[in-house]
Amino acid sequence: MQNLKNLFLSPKGHLMIFVSNVFCLSIAFAAFILLMFQIRYEWGYDGFHKDGDRIFRLEIRLADKGAGVLFARPMIDEFLKSSSMIEIGAPIRGYIGKISFDIKKGEEKFSYIESIREIYPQYLKLTSKP
């Protein structure tokens, strides 16, 4: 009971200590929230697929550059053959180029620019809805 009493009395006697404690606790809470956002994203970025718990993303981590997902096509093929647990491999080739097109709706003209990517045919099996 004495500790609870000290909690309410401490702002009067030791204002600087009280303010620093509240400040540090708020920083810790903000860091915890940011960490939980990141964990939720990492665990659920493929959650909208019907078999989302069986989908994995292959990354390479470089000490000075962070994470990346660029692999040579022969390396991807060898990785897919390396395990009998891999049912389908669906690599996506990175940026190839852009295409622009126009759509007319009545008198209005809408212009679009889309990125072009190359995918394996298995990608459609992996992401298609039943």
Protein architecture, described:
With 130 residues, the protein is α+β, with helices and mostly antiparallel strands. The chain has helices at residues 2-13, 15-44, 73-81, 122-127, and strands at residues 60-62, 66-68, 92-105, 108-119. Strands 1-2 form a two-stranded antiparallel ribbon. Helix 1 crosses helix 2. The relative contact order is 0.08.
Compile the SSE list and pairings.
Elements: H1 2-13, H2 15-44, E1 60-62, E2 66-68, H3 73-81, E3 92-105, E4 108-119, H4 122-127
Antiparallel strand pairs: 1-2, 3-4
Helix pairs in contact: 1-2
Element order, helices and strands? HHEEHEEH
Major β-sheet strand ordering:
1-2
List low-pLDDT spans. Answer: none
Name the average pLDDT. Answer: 76
The radius of gyration is: 26 Å
Strand content: 15-25%
Oligomer: single chain
Report the strand count.
4
> Helix proportion of residues, in percent?
40-55%
| Overall geometric form | extended
Main sheet properties: 2 strands, antiparallel
Pick out its properties.
alpha+beta; two-stranded antiparallel sheet; two-stranded antiparallel ribbon
What's the gist of this structure?
The chain has 130 residues and is α+β, with helices and mostly antiparallel strands. The chain contains 4 helices and 4 strands.
